[in-house]
Each structure stands twice: as structure tokens, then as C-alpha cells.
Amino acid sequence: MIDTIKNPRSILHAMQPMGLGTGDVESLLSYFCRLAVSHSTSTLSLSRTVAQRFQHDVDRNFDWHERQLSGIRESALTWSSALSAMTSVSRLDRLTFLPWRNVISQNGLSMVSKGQFCPQCLAEDQAAGRSPYYRLAWESKAVSVCHIHGTRLTQHCPSCGKDNIRHAAAFVVPGWCTKCGEFLGCQTPSHLDTSGIEKLEHWKAEEIAKLLEAQQRLDAVPMRQDLLNAIQHIMDEMDGGRSSHFARRVGLSKSTVHHWLQSEGKPTLEMSMQVASQSGINLTALLCGDTNSWKAPSDGQQLTLKLLLPPAKRRALARVINWSDVEHQLQRFLQYPKPISVLEAARVLDVEARQLYLHANKTTRQLGKRWEAYRKRCGEANLERAMPIIESVGRELIMEGRAVTRREVEARVPPEVLSSVPRLFDVLRDVQGRIESERLGNS
User: Fold this and answer.
1) What three-state secondary structure class fits 318?
2) Could you give the angle at which helices 74-87 and 43-53 cross, rounded to 10 degrees?
3) Fewer CB within 10 A of the terminal residue: the chain, N end or C end?
4) Count of alpha carbons within 13 angstroms of residue 441, beta-carbon side
5) pLDDT tens track, the chain, 443 positions
6) Helices (H) and strands (E) in the chain, counts
7) Looking at residue 135, what DSSP letter applies?
8) Which residues, 6+ apart, have CB-to-CB distance to 31 below 8 Å?
9) How far apart are CA 123 and CA 128, in angstroms?
10) Is there a contact between 111 and 68 (Cβ–Cβ < 8 Å)?
11) Rounded distance between C-alpha atoms, residue 331 and residue 325, angstroms
């Protein structure tokens, strides 16, 4: 008789995630780092152990922290499932944005690469006697402020001032700087950035927090068709089903909305936020396709919602260029004692070089020829000054049995001498050939 093991032992510590069921749920990346600390090992060593679980060879230069472990791509699914299998902790996909992968386009969730954090949240973690951890909300580029403290998230250590200090290292302890080792938390108001924070930033942070809180208790994975039905319903109620009016209302192109509704497209997270902000629906309800409690806002409410729509970019008026004046300026440039290039002339005149060749062809070509001749004279003069030094070094190298290569010459000749020599490779080859010919002739 074969006994079935009812509760197999886990390979890794069955460590519980932080903040489950709240908008401050821990990110899978943070969980991975804390797991490495609990095993007293490096993040690279742990990543190799996890990789063996799903039979994936890890390259020596593998950067686990750049794999968007907490996003919606395949890497998030692979790593969350592997860690669940090895820790016996189920549903670690809740530490990622994976529950929303059917309603957010594959490339529609921008993640922060260098890692941002709220110093005050970390300080409160420590004060409460719990391990400081990095929130899942902080991984999204859509979030720039803390939804609890209203302060701007930072990527810099308050002690050493460096960035990319949160998790890009072999040994990571969440909450401590990977460069100087100091604690990243800070409760002093004078060290917290609250300047220039816009209402839109607060709204985004709050909506993402509600989204992450809701994903912990989802009965079913949100589906694309439910989202599209909700968008269609909002469009019918607010704009009579006219996609062009709706697109203009939410600040998108008509073709984008058409791609969602008539093709296989899905909105990005940012686009769904624009729809939510301009229709008055909760972001979570929109992505879940739940419009039961939604009503189209009145005109007065709509004015308030308009504040959340980024101002439309106005197309700059076409500039009228007086080509007679441009020609006159180019003629002046031709009289300068020191020639200038066509690109420099175009920069001074604030005109594209291509346009100069089209509208002032003869004078522009004269400028170009004058500049080329000047560069040639400078190169010849520089070569004449540098040649005795190069030849002397070349003879020394050949006497030592070495080749006259760029590396050997650069080690013995000042860089200010070599940097001004045109076609240095050809010059060195000619020098070596000439010196060797002289030696053969003398012998």
C-alpha cells in the first residue's frame, strides 16, 4: 500500500506575504527578497534555485529584478507559481497584477525599473514591529504618491542620496539601502516631498490601492468582454453610442476605441484610468465590467471630472520662414573668419539643415565646402604636430618587439595628442610599415 503524503514539506520557508487583503499588499519582488533573507542567501542564489524548479537555465548575467516579477507578463506567472510550489503558500499571484491580465494589454502596465518607495510607510512598518516591505502599488509607474500619506514616492536613499538602491543587489533586505546599508524609512516631515503634487496623482494612487485591495477577494478573474461591455454601456449613456465623441471625451483617438470594441485590443491601465476619470466610474468596477451602481454624471459633476483629464496638446502653429532673410544670414556666415558647419548654421537660424539645402542650396553648399576645407586643414595641421611623437613611440614599440597598435600607442601618447589625429588607424599602419621598411633597408 502506498501512503499519500497529505501535507508535503515545502522546499522553502512557508513565509506569509505582508498586507494581504489591503491596498498595501506586498509585491512579489519584495516577497522574493524577504524569502532570500530568511534563508540567509543571496537573491541570485535563490533565483537559481527557483529556476531549477521550472527547468530554466539562468544565465550568469541574469537580472531577476528586471523581470517584472510583479507585473502581468509570463515572468510574473512563472515566478509566482514556482514560489507557491516551493513555499506551499498558495495564490502568490495576488502579489502581482496578474489578476488583471485579461483586461490590461500585455504591454499596458508600465513598471518602475529602479524601485520607488514611501519612507514614511517603511518607518511605520518598523515602528509597528513588522518587517518593512515594498508595496505592490509602488511597482506601477501610474503611482507617484503614497495614497496614505500623500507624499511623493522616491527612488533615492535619504542617507546617501543614491538611486537604484532598493533591490538591485546580490543581497537585499527590504527597507535598507543596498548601497550604504542605512534604513530607507523616515518619519521627519521635513524630509518628505509634498511639493507640486497634483490632484490627478492622488486620484491615481487611491484608485490603484482600491484595485489591489479588491483583487484579494475576486470571485472570478475579470474578463476582457465584460470590460468592453462596460465601456460600450458608458459610451451609450454619455455619448449616444458615438465612439468619436466618447474618444474625444476621454482624451483618446477614435481608432483606439474602435480597436478595443471591434478587434482583439485591450486598454492599457493608463487608458482605463482615463475612461474612469471622465465617466465617474470606479476603476475597479470598470475593469470588472460592473456598471450596476454607475450613473452618468451630470454636467456639474462632469466639470469636476474634467480636471483629471490631462490638457490636450496643442499643435504648434506652422512657422513662416522668410527665406530672403535666411539667405542674407547665410551670406554673413560665409564672411566669418572661422568657418561654421551647415548644422551649426541651421541651429543658429532655428531651421532644419535639410530645409537649407532645399531653399538656399547654393549658399548652403558653399558653407559646407568651406567647413570641409577647414576641417581638412585642421586635421593636416594636427597630424603634422602629432607625427613626430607617434613615430618616436612607434620605433620604441618595434624595438621592444611589439606591434604599433592603437592600444599600445594610447598607453604612451597623451590623449590630447591622439584625439586630434584623423584616421588614426591608417596613420599607425603607415607608421609601422615605414619604420619596418627603414629597418629592412638598413639591414
Assistant:
1) coil
2) 90
3) N
4) 6
5) 344 445 567 889 999 999 999 999 999 999 999 999 999 998 888 888 887 766 554 454 555 555 678 889 888 888 888 888 888 888 898 999 999 999 998 888 888 888 899 999 999 999 999 999 999 999 999 999 999 999 999 998 888 888 888 887 888 899 999 888 899 998 665 556 666 788 889 999 999 999 999 998 888 889 999 999 999 999 999 989 898 989 888 888 889 988 898 888 899 999 999 999 888 899 999 999 999 989 888 765 554 455 555 555 555 555 678 889 989 999 998 898 888 888 888 888 888 887 887 788 888 888 888 888 888 888 788 778 778 887 888 788 878 778 877 778 777 777 777 766 777 777 778 877 787 777 777 66
6) 18, 0
7) B
8) 15, 17, 18, 83, 92, 95, 133
9) 9
10) yes
11) 10
* R_g of the chain, CA atoms, integer Å: 32
Give the list of residues 6+ apart from residue 406 with CB closer than 8 angstroms, or none: 424, 425, 428
For residues 47 and 64, the answer to whether their CB atoms sit within 8 Å is yes
Residues in the chain: 443
Contacts with 193 (C-beta within 8 Å, 6 or more apart), sequence order: 151, 152, 154
| Whole-angstrom distance, CA of residue 345 vs CA of residue 180 | 48
d(CA 29, CA 136): 8
Task: Name the DSSP class of 292.
Answer: T
C-alpha cell read off for 23: 491596498
Are 424 and 432 within 8 A, CB to CB? no
Cell numbers for 260, please give them: 478595443
Q: How far is Cα 289 from Cα 273, in angstroms, rounded to an integer? A: 14
Closest CA to 266 of 274, 275, 257: 257
